[in-house]
Amino acid sequence: MIFGSIRRGTRVSVDNERCEIFGFCEMEAPSTFKIGPDGKLRIRRMVDRDGLDQAISAARLCPKQAIRVKGEGAYDDE
Ligand code: SF4
């Protein structure tokens, strides 16, 4: 199974208008972000707890501020 415990409401997205494929996100959160052989960024939209922490870190590092993590505070079901 790919995901351990998916938290409802926690989603990762990237603004393609801003992203310039620098790849910092892939280095910081390789389970969530991957630059494919075609040079396009692929993302895993739903993340588990470990993936979430990495995705938040990637969002902070992204030089274009292109990453959004929604529901990052919703660790427990509401
Ligand atoms: S770090 Fe930001 S700009 Fe770079 S590939 Fe990831 S989302 Fe795109």
Automatic annotation (TrEMBL):
Q: Which InterPro entries match?
A: Fe-S_cluster_ET (IPR051269)
Cofactor(s) recorded for this entry are: [3Fe-4S] cluster
Recite the UniProt keywords alphabetically: 3Fe-4S, Electron transport, Iron, Iron-sulfur, Metal-binding, Transport
A Pfam family cross-referenced in the UniProt record is Fer4_15
Q: Which residues form a coiled coil?
A: none
Q: Could you cite one Gene Ontology molecular function of this protein?
A: 3 iron, 4 sulfur cluster binding
Q: Which domain of life is it from?
A: Bacteria
Q: Which protein, by its recorded name, is this?
A: Ferredoxin
Q: In which organism is this protein found?
A: Amycolatopsis japonica
